[in-house]
Design goal:
Helix content is 54%, strand content 0%. The chain is mainly α. The protein is elongated and about 50 Å long.
Length: 63
């Protein structure tokens, strides 16, 4: 079994340019290893993640 640090490195190298994919996989990794906020922040401390996508509403076309 690979170490958590190795999994995080792989996550950044494979998905660092795709924010939606990155953050969904990040959330899965945190849940899988049952990390608390402090542990998750420590894994992220030396890296620069892509911005977390925000939910935006699409404009409604006319009536």
């Amino acid at each position: 079994m690979e170490s958590i640090e190795r999994e995080v490195d792989r996550l950044f190298s494979l998905n660092g340019r795709h924010p939606v994919l990155f953050w969904s996989r990040w959330d899965e990794l945190v849940a899988l290893h049952q990390l608390n906020k402090r542990q998750a922040d420590a894994l992220m401390s030396r890296r620069v993640p892509p911005p977390r996508p925000t939910k935006t509403l699409r404009p409604v076309d006319g009536p």
